[in-house]
Amino acid sequence: MIARRTVLGEMFELLKEDPTSRARLGRLQTAHGVVETPVFMPVGTQASVKALDNRELEEMGTQILLGNTYHLAIRPGMEIIRQAGGLHRFMNWHRPILTDSGGFQVFSLGKIRKIREHGVEFRSHLDGSPLFIGPKESMEIQRWLGSDIAMVFDECPPHPAPRVEVERAVQRTLRWAAECLAQPRAPGQLYFGIVQGGSHGDLRRQCAEQLVALGFDGYAIGGVSVGEPEPEMFRQIELTEPHLPANQARYAMGLGTPAQLVELVARGIDMFDCVLPTRVARNGTAFTSRGTFAVKGGAVKADFGPIEEGCQCFACRNHTRAYIRHLLNVNEILGLRLVSIHNSHYYLQVMADIRTHLQNGTFAGYRREFAAKYVPSEKVRKARSDAELVAGKA
User: Is 154 labeled as catalytic in the residue annotation?
Assistant: First the structure.
């Protein structure tokens, strides 16, 4: 592999470290503005965060959105986005955007794809038409999208997978990462490498160290939230994080529940994305500081309080549990919109609270209090299915 010289810390400024954990307060500079970390990125797979508009996202403090290369390349297609002047102009979003490479979706297609030396042959989940995407194609699409942060095209092995299969995935990921790094990029665009390696500490270390030697602008931990139990997910993060540069951004892909986010921040992670806030909202499930509850349930039929007392989101300031339950049970679109607004606001508020406590040196107490109050839901943890992701149902 050919190493690329990079100026470490140029884009990411480490502001403060928590003395009781590996948590960090930081600032990431992008072409469309500064992102204060730790940060949660709402998922806008198809150039839209489901059920929310840009005004709502801005009002609740969204700093950066996530888009998906695979889905946007299929619909509306690159020609339309090129004519629009890039993804920011197409969706009229003026803040930063991170784009996934499409690799996770392609490898989730399982039996309808074939891995080749320079990419993957597969069939569209829409009409079955033959398609090909590899490092060159993925980075070209992301260049035309004009995202602030472009993820490299990697191989994400399934869980569980034999070690020999994970080893092959790591080698292919490293080879493709070097190929991605050689591709031209949009003005100001950052490239993030992705560490694979499954639950094998030596493979995680090998992948991380070789990616760092190549010299990316930031690093993501991939191959988590793919069906493994929570303790193993935490372990994979812990196996990887020590091998990533302290003065560059670290991103845990596809995670997680609010309680997981707090614990992952404590393990040194700066950036997160997850479909859960809007996905479970469409089933009538709301996140609160005490865990989740079913807004559609009969227990709140005559409950005229907000989804959560003290919450300052639009839904909680203006509507009651009883009213939102009614909307959900008669299939009014406003019902799922209001729960989506609340859940997304809650996730962003958790991250804002974390940043405040890191700044004030009180993160340890916040972490203990959060864990004591929050009751995790097994149903919510299992809500993120690969099939739904591939179908674009984020």
Answer: no
